[in-house]
Amino acid sequence: MSEVFRGALESVDENEITAARAMGFSDLQIILYIEFPQMLRFSIPGVMNELTSILKNTPFAYTVGITEILGQAKALTASTMLGMNIYLISGVLYFVIYQFFVLIMKKTKNKYAVE
Predict the structure, then answer these.
(1) Would you say 58 and 68 are in contact if contact means Cβ atoms under 8 Å apart?
(2) pLDDT tens over the chain, length 115 residues
(3) Under 8 Å between Cβ of 76 and 37
(4) CB 55, CB 97: distance < 8 Å
(5) Quick one: 31 exposed, middle or buried, by C-beta within 10 A (0-12, 13-18, 19+)?
(6) Model pTM?
C-alpha cells in the first residue's frame, strides 16, 4: 500500500506545487490542499487492487486480523454437513465485504474527482 501512495504522491505535478508556493501557500497548505487530494485521486485504483488481493488471499487477511471466512466455513461444514449452504453464505459474505470497499472507493473517487 505504501508503494501505491508513494507512486500517487510522485504523480502530482511539480508545477502545481511551484504555483502554490508562488501564491504564498505554506508547506502544510500545499500538502493539505494540493498534494493530498490529488494523491488520493491517483491512488484509488491501486488501493482497490490491493484490497481485492487481500480479500482473495484470506490467510494473509487472517494475519492482519480479519477472521478467515473460508477456514471457518470448512470447519462448520465438517460438523454440520451443510456444505452448499455454508459455502453460499461465505461467498455472499466475501461479496458484501468487497462491495463495501468498492462503495468507499467510489465515494472517495467522487469526492476528489476533477470536474
Answers:
(1) yes
(2) 889 899 999 999 999 999 999 999 999 999 999 999 889 888 888 888 887 777 766 655 555 445 677 778 888 888 888 889 988 988 888 888 888 888 888 888 788 777 6
(3) no
(4) yes
(5) middle
(6) 0.57
